Amino acid sequence: MRLIALSAAALSAAVSVCVLGAEPAKAAAAVPVLSSPAGPSLLSLVQVFFSLLLVIAAIFGSAWLMRRMTPGHFGGQAQLRVVGGVMVGAKERVVVVELRDTWLVLGVTPNKVSTLHTLPRPDDLPQVAAPMPFAEKLAGVIKARRAGEGAQ
After folding, report:
1. Over the stretch 115-128, which tens digit does the pLDDT of each residue have?
2. Which of 25, 97, 127, 135 is the most buried (most CB within 10 A)?
3. Chain mean pLDDT for the chain
4. Which of 63, 105, 112 is nearest to 82 (CA)?
5. Which position has the higher pLDDT, 48 or 6?
């Protein structure tokens, strides 16, 4: 009986060693072998480079188009200016718009814009200057910083 127990234990140990020894071989066989260990080819690098250039050109092109097609900036200085507005509902507004010397009171809904009233521009209001374009503001800030650096 003792001999059978020892032989069963030896057989169990031998089977477990064989199973453990076989697992790394299975794992190594499952790893695919690369046909080209040298890395990416020159053709694939050129393709990636030109794709990147195409994406960057598309970004700059769309930015240029957005700058050219911005509504309200076709004629230089806009003649239409929003004076004020107030929400009168969830999606409804009353807006006062100045067009030359006339104020238009407009009702704005998601579906349409309608004129509620038209009145002349009040005389007691000062003439509002056109807002300074961003390029001029940036140039003023840069000039002020350079003047501040030169004084030190």
Report:
1. 999 998 887 766 65
2. 97
3. 75
4. 105
5. 48
Task: Enumerate residues 6+ apart whose C-beta is below 8 A from 106.
Answer: 94, 95, 96, 97, 113, 114, 115, 116
Cα–Cα distance, 110 to 100 (Å, whole number)? 26
d(CA 64, CA 23): 61
The closest of 120, 116, 70, 118 to 92, measured between CA atoms, is 116
Structure-token pair, residue 48:
């990636």
- Measured CA to CA, the distance from residue 144 to residue 25 in angstroms comes to 73
CB 111 within 8 A of CB 93: no
Q: Please provide residue 140's backbone torsions phi and psi, each rounded to the nearest 5 degrees.
A: -65, -40
Strands (E), 3-131: 80-87, 93-99, 102-108, 113-120
Give 25-54 pLDDT, tens digit per residue.
Answer: 454 555 555 555 566 788 888 999 999 999
Distance CA(103)–CA(97), nearest Å, equals 6
Q: Model-level pTM?
A: 0.37
3-state per-residue secondary structure call for 67-80: HHCCCCCCCCCCCE
